[in-house]
């Protein structure tokens, strides 16, 4: 075991260890303060983005299904709280461009579909 040379050095290793741990802890807390909000933003946007895209894709798929002359179905209803907007409001088989905007918890994603003759 290590023996200090004199009685005045007996607590120096303990003090040095406490200072090193304090410095490391300060660095870790500083980094978590900087990176924490960014990670939280990415996580929240990821789930909102996927659900918004799902809503827009659902209404586009409904338009494709309807335009192919399949039996009439009601417009999709989102059970997760997402909503969508279809422009123009109806899906017609004539050459047109439809835009679907899906929204979930403040995140919006847009898809566009062009119908050809």
Automatic annotation (TrEMBL):
* Superkingdom as given in the UniProt entry: Bacteria
Q: Which UniProt keywords apply?
A: Membrane, Transmembrane, Transmembrane helix
Task: From the record, give the transmembrane residue ranges.
Answer: 12-31
Q: What is this protein called?
A: Type 4 fimbrial biogenesis protein PilX N-terminal domain-containing protein
């Amino acid at each position: 075991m290590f023996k200090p040379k004199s009685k005045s050095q007996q607590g120096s290793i303990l003090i040095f260890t406490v200072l090193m741990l304090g410095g490391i802890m300060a660095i870790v807390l500083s980094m978590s303060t900087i990176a924490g909000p960014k990670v939280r933003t990415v996580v929240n946007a990821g789930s909102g983005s996927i659900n918004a895209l799902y809503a827009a894709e659902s209404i586009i798929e409904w338009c494709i299904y309807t335009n192919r002359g399949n039996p009439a179905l009601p417009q999709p209803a989102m059970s997760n709280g997402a909503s969508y907007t279809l422009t123009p409001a109806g899906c017609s088989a004539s050459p047109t461009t439809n835009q679907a905007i899906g929204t979930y918890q403040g995140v919006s994603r847009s898809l566009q579909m062009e119908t050809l003759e």
